[in-house]
Amino acid sequence: MKHIFVILTAIILNVLIFNSGVISYPGYGSGTTDSSGTATSTTLVDDPKITNIFPGEKHFANMRMLTVVGENAEAYWNSDGTKLVLQIHVGDGNCDQIYVMDLETCETELVSTGKGVTTCAYWKYPENDKIIYGSTHLAHNECPKSVERSKGYIWRLHPEYDVFEANPDGTEIKQLTFEPVYDAEATFAHDGSSIIYTSLSTGDLELWTMDPDGSNKKQMTNHLGYDGGAFFSWDGTKIVWRAYYPETDVEKDVYLAGLKENSIRPMPLQIRMMDRDGSNVIQITDNGNANFCPFFMPGDERIIFASNYQGSSIMDFNLWIVDVDGNNLEQLTFYEGFDAFPMFSPDGTKLVFGSNRNQRNDGDTNIFLCDWVD
User: Fold this and answer.
1) In which domain, by residue range, is 55 found?
2) Are 354 and 293 a contacting pair, CB within 8 Å?
3) 302 CB burial (10 A radius; 0-12, 13-18, 19+)
4) Res. 23: pLDDT tops 80
C-alpha cells in the first residue's frame, strides 16, 4: 500500500503538466487524457537511460528510470517479465489509478475506471489473464474528500474500497469483496490458487484469503492492530506482511479511535511471516522503525523490504534484505531519500522499485529497473 509511505513521511507530491487533454513531459514522452484529466495512454519516457547507482549499491547494475515525473508506485511484474502493473497519480484533484506498462515500449495504459481512488494492483499468476486491485469507483466518480492537513497526516480507510478483478486491458470488471468496509491490498499466490488481502470486516484490519472467484473467504490474523501488504512466497507455502500491534493503553486508544473514523495514523510497522494456513507466525524485524513492502526473494530464503532503520531522517527509506529467520540483515540502497516497493522479476535477474532519486520535482517518485547482482 503506497499510502503507508505517505503516512510516514507526509510528502505532498508534485504532478504532471496538462495541456488541452495531452499530458506533456517536456523532453520526454507524451500521452492522452480523458475529459477529467485522467491519463488514458502515456509513454512516460521514450528511451529509458542508465541512471544513478549510488556508492555501496553493489547488487545493482544497468539501472534504468522507467518514469520521469509525478507519483508512480507499486510496480509489480507479470509472470513472463514483460509488463508491470502500477498505480500513478497524474494531476491535481485526481486520484491514483491503475496502469499497465509494456517494458519493451514503456507505453502505459489506464486499466482502472478513472473514477474514485484505486490502490494495490497485482497480476493473476501464472496466466497473466487477469489483474486485481482495490477501488472505490462504485461509490465515487471523483476523488474522495481528503482529511484536513491541520489534523496531521491521516490515511483514510475508505469503506467504499473493494477488491476487483479485470482483464489486463481493464475490461470485464468483476467485484470480489462486498463488505461495507475497507477491503484492499490484494495480491495473488504465484500458482493463481488464492488471493490474500486486508479487510476491516471484523472491526480490525486483518489479513484474509479468498479463492480467485471471491468465494471461500478465511480470516488469517486475529490480533489488535494493522495487518496488511501481504505477499505469498514463490512456492506458495509462506506469507510475509507488515504489521503494527499497539501495546500501551494510549496506543490502543489512538488506534481504535482512528478505526472508528475509518482512518489510521503513522505507525512503526514490523515485518512478520507465517505459514500459508496462518500458523507458525514469526516476527522478522524488531527495530522500532517503519518497515514495509516486504517481498520474498527468489528461492524464498530471504526477504527484501523497505525501512527507515538507520536512515538520516524519518523520510530516509532504504531497501534491505534479511534471512527469513531475521538474521544477516544487509542494506541494499544508500540514497538519502525514499526507496521502496521492491519486486524481483520471476526469473530473479531483475529488480523493480520506486524511488525519489533523480527526481525532477520535489517529491516525485519514479519507477526504476535494474539487473540484480548476487
Assistant:
1) 2-372
2) no
3) middle
4) no
**Cell digits of residue 361:** 520535482
Cβ proximity of 349 and 38 under 8 Å? no
- Entry pTM: 0.88
- Residues 147-191: tens digit of each pLDDT: 655 555 678 899 999 999 999 999 999 999 999 999 999 999 999
- End-to-end, the C-alpha distance of the chain in Å comes to 27
Specify the 3-state DSSP secondary structure of 18. Answer: strand
The total of structural domains in the chain comes to 1
Cβ atoms within 10 Å of 217's Cβ, excluding its own: 17
- CATH number of the structural domain spanning residue 279: 2.120.10.30
Q: Which letter does DSSP use for residue 12 in this model? A: P
C-alpha cell at 89: 497519480
Burial class (CB in 10 A: 0-12, 13-18, 19+), 140: middle
Task: Give me the half-sphere count of Cα atoms (radius 13 Å) on the Cβ side of residue 349.
Answer: 4
Summarize pLDDT for 120-156 with one digit per residue, the tens: 999 999 999 999 999 999 999 998 877 655 555 678 8
Cell numbers found for residue 304: 527484501
Which 8-state DSSP code applies to residue 149?
A: G
CA distance 266 to 284: 20
d(CA 105, CA 121): 21
State how far Cα 48 lies from the chain centre. 22
Closest to 66 measured CA to CA, from 357, 344, 334, 296? 357
Q: How far apart are CA 107 and CA 44, in angstroms?
A: 7
- Cβ atoms of residues 75 and 2 within 8 Å: no
d(C-alpha 25, C-alpha 133), whole Å: 27
Residue type (1 letter), 212: P
Rg, Å, the chain Cα set: 19
Question: What is the C-alpha separation between 182 and 283, in angstroms, rounded?
Answer: 25
